[in-house]
Every structure is written in structure tokens, then in C-alpha cells.
Write a structure and sequence with these properties.
By secondary structure, this protein is of the alpha/beta class. It has helices at residues 5-18, 20-32, 41-53, 103-121, 141-147, 199-214, 252-273, 293-304, 324-328, 350-355, 359-381, 384-398, and strands at 57-60, 69-73, 84-90, 127-133, 156-158, 161-163, 174-183, 222-229, 240-249, 276-281, 333-334, 337-339. The relative contact order is 0.17.
Length: 401
């Protein structure tokens, strides 16, 4: 089937519109029954079932995760045989807050883009993937999918995120969770004070040391910690104390240096306090996001037809971290933000959860579905697009961006 670009974009618009009510029903179903990281059984089943009904071949339990899936269509036998596009869906919710990050909209937009594009193109040359990625908020399903080779052969990984800004790309930092445990020796603080080695005192000293370090960190980098174990009784010198630290860096290399600084600080404190320290990673690290401006420019152009104009992010403003970063440092990727409420608001709040089920959320989800589908079509049908996207990817990688 041959298409002119304009006729194909119009066909995609028609297919999204024909599915609008069903896509919104799916979004609201996810919103009504939020499921947290790795527990998204209903969500994954609902989305996989919708894709199967639209003719996709679905692999459930992808990358060894029960709530992950990969749906595929196209004439290519495997990813890498011809152009390959992956449309990404997130659907985990936040504890207590539900879909206060709008992942219900991400899921339904990815679903709408995949099904509308398949209907508009028929059986396409190359490969179209719809990837169900669990546990973005905690654990990093996409980290596991990358390590399992799920994105090998992919030319473009596409998704959008609802937010409070209309930004063409996402300033997302690299992040890690690190546990620090100090081992001391228990004693009675009055009866045998010289026999005790205070593990909690060592942990407190680490917090003080990191407070000094934090003041000289570059933009996009910081350390935030909590005490997870501080002892059991006030009349026992704590023999063990533990803290959990969240670290962020403007780039993945900056994060790696910061983790090493934390490790050095902890070892120095242990030496000074005669304690023994253990420093361990908790879960996978999120890498910084590398925007592919060839693809994000196409998405912004397509979204403009819906009356939503994207701009560049405000310099120095960082919006957090995401496991999309680990995808973006392997293949060309986009992660634009599209506002569902005003910039005075914030995600991870009850008002944002409400907006994710509101009329503006619906409009943005449908507009994003259309723009994602049109961008995917550009990658599949225009030879210059994946070539330019990969060239730009390599340029940024070589520059350490």
C-alpha cells in the first residue's frame, strides 16, 4: 500500500479519532485501579489484550517480568531486519497517590499510536513494537528490558509524558539508590561506655560530611538521604545503623563520580569512627536522558497540528529521573512533556492525579497518540529519518551528552 505523507497523517488522525472513546476508557480503567511497581497485572493484561484484538502478536512476561510485554507487527522476521520502531507504554502508579504521574495517559497514548498506525499502514515493512514497561517509578522495568536485549535492532523508541510544561524534550538526570550500613559494637552507654562503637554516630557523621559535599555539586546533581535503621533502644550503643541515599547527576558520568564520592566519604567516616562500612547499590541505576532532536523535532511538528506548541526546556530546571534514560543511551529516543495542568502545579500530587483523568488529560493523550504514530510512520517509511536519527545519536554520544 503506497501513501503520500499527508494522506497517511490524515489516515492516522482518522484511526485515532475512531478509537478515541475506547482509548479513554482504557485510560480511566487504569486510573480507577492503580497498581504499583511490578504489581501491574490488570494493566498489563488489559493493554496486551487490546493489542491482540488489533492484530498484534503479543509476548507476555517479556524480559522475565510477569507484568511486561512486547507486541509486534510487520513483515520483518526480527527487529533489525528493516526499520524498527518501539512505542513505549508505562502503567505503574504511585503508592497512596495513584496515577499522580499520569502513566495511564502514557499507556493509552502508546496503545492508540500503535493500533492507529497499524490500521493506517496495514502490514508494514520493517517492525512496529508496542512495549509494555512496568515499574518506572521504582525498580526500572526498562533497565531490565535493555539488559535483556529487547531494544536491540530498534531505530527509534518513542513515548510522551504528561506534565506541567510543554517541552520538546525531558531534562532528566541519572539516578541511583545506595545503601550505606555501618557496623559498630554494642555496649551500655553508662556501664561500659568505652567498649561501644557507635554505628549511628558514624551514620550521622556521614550525613554531616555529605552536607558539606552537597554545597559544591554542579547543577543537576544532589544527594538526599534517610535513616532506615538507627538502633533499637536508647540504653544500647547502636551496633548497626543504615541509611538509604538517592543520588542524581546531570549526566551518567557525573552520577558515577558522585557515587564514588559517597563511597569515599563513607570509608573515611568508618576509618575515623573505627566502624566497618558496607556500600551497596539498591536496584538498577537510571542513566541520564539523551534526546534525539531529529525525532523530537518531528514529534513537535506533528503535535503542532493539534494546537500544542512545544518549546525548549528552561535551562537549569530538572524534572527528575526515569529509566527511559537507559533506553536513550542505546537507541535514538524521545520523551517530550505535554502539559495537562498549569505550570503552577506539579506531578506526584493529588491535583495532578485528578488532571490525569480530566478533559485536558484526554485531549493531550489523543493528540500525543496521533503525533507518536505520525513520528513512527516517518521512521518506518522515510529512509532518511532513521539515518539522521542515528547520526545525531552518535554525535551526542561522542560528545558525552
Amino acid at each position: 500500500m503506497s501513501h503520500t505523507p499527508d494522506s497517511l497523517y490524515a489516515r492516522i488522525r482518522e484511526e485515532v479519532a475512531a478509537r478515541a472513546d475506547r482509548l479513554w476508557d482504557v485510560s480511566l480503567a487504569l486510573h480507577r485501579e492503580p497498581e504499583t511497581a511490578y504489581e501491574e497485572h490488570r494493566a498489563a493484561g488489559l493493554l496486551a489484550g487490546e493489542l491482540e484484538r488489533e492484530g498484534f502478536r503479543v509476548e507476555r512476561g517479556a524480559a522475565g517480568m510477569p507484568t511486561a510485554f512486547v507486541a509486534r507487527t510487520g513483515r520483518a522476521a526480527t527487529a533489525g531486519d528493516g526499520p524498527c520502531v518501539a512505542l513505549l507504554m508505562e502503567y505503574d502508579a504511585l503508592p497512596l497517590l495513584g496515577h499522580a504521574c499520569g502513566h495511564n495517559l502514557i499507556a493509552s497514548a502508546g496503545l492508540g499510536a500503535a493500533t492507529a498506525l497499524r490500521a493506517a499502514l496495514g502490514e508494514v515493512d520493517g517492525t512496529l513494537l508496542a512495549v509494555g514497561a512496568p515499574a518506572e517509578e521504582r525498580g526500572g522495568g526498562k533497565v531490565t528490558e535493555v539488559e535483556a536485549g529487547l531494544f536491540d535492532g530498534v531505530d527509534a523508541a518513542l513515548m510522551f509524558h504528561p506534565g506541567v510544561y510543554d517541552w520538546a524534550w525531558a531534562p532528566l538526570t541519572a539516578s541511583a539508590q545506595v545503601r550505606v550500613g555501618f557496623h559498630g559494637r554494642a555496649a551500655h552507654p553508662t556501664g561500659s561506655p568505652t567498649e561501644g562503637i557507635d554505628a549511628l554516630g558514624a551514620l550521622i557523621q556521614l550525613f554531616n560530611t555529605l552536607g558539606v559535599l552537597d554545597r559544591r555539586l554542579p547543577g543537576g546533581s544532589h544527594i538526599q538521604g534517610i535513616v532506615t535503621d538507627g538502633g533499637r533502644a536508647t540504653n544500647i550503643v547502636p551496633e548497626y545503623a543504615e541509611g538509604l541515599f538517592g543520588l542524581r547527576g546531570g549526566t551518567t558520568s557525573a552520577l558515577e563520580k558522585l557515587v564514588e564520592e559517597l563511597r569515599s566519604c563513607a570509608q573515611g567516616v568508618a576509618l575515623a569512627t573505627r566502624t566497618r562500612v558496607e556500600v551497596t547499590d539498591v536496584g538498577g541505576r537510571y542513566e541520564h536522558f539523551r534526546d534525539n532532536d531529529v525525532l523530537s523535532g518531528l514529534f513537535a511538528h506533528h503535535l503542532d497540528r493539534a494546537g500544542i506548541r512545544l518549546s525548549e526546556p528552561v535551562p537549569g530546571v530538572y524534572l527528575g529521573s526515569s529509566d527511559i534514560g537507559n533506553v536513550s543511551t542505546r537507541v535514538p529516543a524521545i520523551h517530550p512533556f505535554v502539559a495537562i495542568m498549569g505550570s503552577e502545579g506539579s506531578d506526584h500530587t493529588p491535583p495532578f492525579a485528578e488532571a490525569a483523568a480530566g478533559p485536558r488529560g484526554r485531549r493531550v493523550m489523543l493528540a500525543a497518540a496521533e503525533a507518536l504514530a505520525c513520528t513512527a510512520a516517518d521512521v518506518l517509511l522515510r529512509e532518511d529519518v532513521p539515518e539522521r536519527a542515528w547520526d545525531r545519536f552518535r554525535e551526542k554520544a561522542a560528545a558525552g551528552l
